[in-house]
# Entry
Amino acid sequence: MIRVLLVDDQPLIRSGFRALLDLEDDIEVVAEAADGQEGLVLAREHLPDVALVDIRMPVVDGIEATRRIAADPTLAGVHVVILTNYGLDEYVFNALRAGAAGFLVKDIVPQDFLHAVRVAARGDALLAPSITRRLINRHVAQPLHTGTDTGLEELTHREREAVVLVARGLSNDQIADRMVISPMTAKTHVNRAMAKLHARDRAQLVVLAYESGLVAPRNP
# Structure
């Protein structure tokens, strides 16, 4: 059973998402919150698998709520997915830096929304390659940590290759095809890279890849 926490200051939005999620046999909404502070309290109380967090809220906004969840060792199993009205919301990339596993646009179709919740619960990043490239080009036009210790030197050649492909938006199966290895081996390379770089999830691995200069932004 996938346990979900809804954090949004608009009751109508929360009720709509809840109605959709409650129809699924493998998903349970364990709590709802109207702001980030309440969401943090409920996250600690219920330990959900996925927290769907609105980016703009009173008291504590989605970015700060995400940062606090990511910094709390007791909430390591909580995957935060940011909810936004705009595919290119100026705060989305900051949310990824704060520790979000990805983001969803609120007008997403129900089938894709449910799939995204399941993907997040597995620990995979919710980063559509086309939108990710546009976000990267807009917010990370040049590396932020060039010349500093990024930890990349700890990666093997194959692990670095896997990180580059993750940053390009490829799934484990696609990485396996590109690298001519099994999906399990691809997953192992990705997981080892995450551990060595201290990345919370694949989304943060993408951020680190671009910020370190391992992957250069492409034109939209």
Remarks:
- Confidence is low (pLDDT under 50) at residues 141-148.
- The radius of gyration is 17 Å.
- The first helix runs from residue 11 to 21.
